[in-house]
Amino acid sequence: MSVKEDKNTRYYVEIDLKTHKIINVGFDHKLSEYLDRGRQNNSKIHRLFLTKGQYNKYVERCLSGFESS
């Protein structure tokens, strides 16, 4: 199922706090169960929210050839 992008879409990267590596990049609706309204239940991961422009630039520069969620 694809996520509809609209004004309620939130873009993010998830960073492993131990290794400081990006482990996930994606976007979802701000009220989705996955985003959990901003709470981060996994203390080993930090979710960093980006603007749509920052997200698009990151995907363009760093993930060319890869698919994002």
The strand order across the widest sheet is 2-1-3
Number of domains: 1
- What structural category do the secondary elements indicate? alpha+beta
Distance between the termini: 10 Å
Sequence stretches where pLDDT stays below 50 over 5 or more residues: none
Compute the number of strand runs.
Answer: 3
Short characterization:
The chain has 69 residues and is an alpha+beta fold. It contains one helix and three strands, in the order βββα. The protein has one helix at 52-62, and strands at 9-16, 22-29, 45-50.
Present the secondary structure layout.
Layout: E1 9-16, E2 22-29, E3 45-50, H1 52-62
Antiparallel strand pairs: 1-2, 1-3
Plain-language structure description:
It is a single chain. The protein has 69 residues and is an alpha+beta fold. It has one domain. Helices cover 16% and strands 32% of the residues. The chain contains one helix and three strands. A three-stranded antiparallel sheet has the order 2-1-3. Strand 1 and strand 2 form a beta hairpin. The longest helix has 11 residues. It is flat, with a radius of gyration of 12 Å.
Relevant terms:
69 residues, 32% strand, three-stranded antiparallel sheet, alpha+beta
